[in-house]
Amino acid sequence: MSAQSRGAQGDWQRDVFRELGGASAPADPDPAVPGTGTEAAPPGALPPPARSSRPSLPPPAPEPEPVVSPALGGDRVRHGDPLPRRALRVLRRTLLSSAARQTEEAARVARLIQQPITTGRQIAVTSIRGGAGKSTVAALLALAFAPHRHDPVLAVEADPALGTLARRLGATQVRWTCGDVARIIDPSMQITDVTGYLLPFAGGGWLLPGSRGTAGAQLDVEIYRIVMTSLRRYFGTTVVDCETMPAEVARTALATTQARVLVSPATTAGAVATRSVLDWLGGLHRSMLPRTVVVLAHTAPDMGLDPRKAAAYLEAGGARVVALPYDRALAGGGVIRTGLLGEATREAAALIAAESMDRAMARGGGRA
Length: 368
Known about the structure:
By secondary structure, the chain is an alpha/beta fold. The protein has helices at residues 3-21, 83-95, 99-114, 134-145, 165-168, 178-184, 191-194, 221-231, 248-256, 268-284, 307-314, 328-331, 343-360; strands at residues 65-66, 121-127, 153-158, 173-174, 199-201, 205-208, 237-242, 259-265, 292-297, 320-324. The strands form 2 sheets. It has an 8-stranded mixed sheet, with helices on both faces. The N and C termini lie close together (7 Å).
């Protein structure tokens, strides 16, 4: 992609952000030396927030709130694959010659997940309705990136009202939220200062929750803009669990991040609604659909949607469709334990991460 086309792309994406979020588009930042944390923003990055005076001392920490009430107890832990299926898989690996092909595909997926970057990549995850598995997919992405990338990985919960990302990533208490960090963050901070306001999760990643479980909690576009632009310089890979469409923050995130993941129930109605969102994205700019991954989430066993027909229907325009199979270990809604996930689920999660990272890098068909 030429410098002229990249500049033109940056212009239209700032225009989209201004139209959706009401924020004025700033001038292009000056380029800087890579690796210093002040690199020029890539195409699709949000404009940096204006600097303002900050208190010399951080505000007192709020009281932590439990993610799940202790009165509810814990979740039942189940393996994603039943014992007979696990035994059959071992037998097939022993007898069949497909192991080499599986190994080759796994190596390809790993290369895509681990590919080097020079500036922060942000991937938005949303869906057309609640209960489709959006937070589950966002958590699977974060868990796929964190142990395999050399740059810091951040998961942001931008769905404070209904999001379950903190629970899925194993958080037991929440203290600081997106709104708190938006008021505290300062360009002079080091990454060690920033992570003091975040929660660690398995694999070495960091989590920024959307709320402390308060009913009616909201996240507006301005807070989202400050958080995303301020934290991009510290984290190479950021996964954003957005509100469902057509919420304002979700529309803004889809239009301004480097790649996007749409989670659809594996039903005919879900595919039709997701196609309408894809058509809207395609109307924004011709590069949007090639940088989009659609996840067909099987939230129950034996969902009847034909995967081949659904892929042909949803991939028109350049999007990539990946099926996420039903998994008993995910169905309970508790903490995701990757060691208990079914093999097909682990493979699908890795493929979603690989495809979304490749599109965030403007590859995999994403070149304008």
